[in-house]
Amino acid sequence: MGRSLMEMRSLAAEFPDAIKRMKACLRATGRVATDEQVVWAWSEYSESVCASWLLLPESDDDLVVLLLRHWPACELHATGCIATLTAGDFGGSPQLSLPEEVIRKMGWTCGDEVELQRQGDSLVVRGH
Question: Domain total for the chain?
């Protein structure tokens, strides 16, 4: 799917009650989530059944199962984290895999925004 940060924030503004409930359901299971993470997960689920945004199920347990099944790839794994970068001159919403060690050293967490800049023959990733 690859929604941009702007699109995710727009959906969060359009469906604030749904976002609040999804975050509360996840919090009840000991998970902390950003608006963008729950929008990403629910958008992924909705699009998997050819919809743009589905109504949430009545059951909180069912909701949590669906959210976790479609959770964003930005979770830390042994192989690293997927960081969504601002598009800048590159167009679209590129993704870059960064080693978990680099993410920790930079003090970044899932949901943080980073920027990709071209400097000569190099690409520089900066946190905001």
Answer: 2
